[in-house]
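FIELD: query
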Amino acid sequence: MRNLTVRDICPGDGRPVRAVLVVLDTDGKRTTIPPYYSDTNGCGSDGTNFGTYGLGLSDGWRIKSVSVRVCVYNSSGNLKCVTSAGRDNPYT
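FIELD: result
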């Protein structure tokens, strides 16, 4: 995945956001690929860019699609998460 950027537009809740990749394989299994990336720039549209993200998966794993899961969190953990629609792999 290229140019993964996490942006917290701050709807007034005062809580930060973070994102993680979710992979759907051709067998229908969803796997979260750590680490979570957090927006460290505070409110605004600039966000935190993490550049190109390599999955580093072993041979033989057939990826059907990749999604991004974004969560609002606090020191206790994730409070609410939403997963984007998957981006299909045209090669499977």
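FIELD: remark
The first strand starts at residue 5 and ends at 6.
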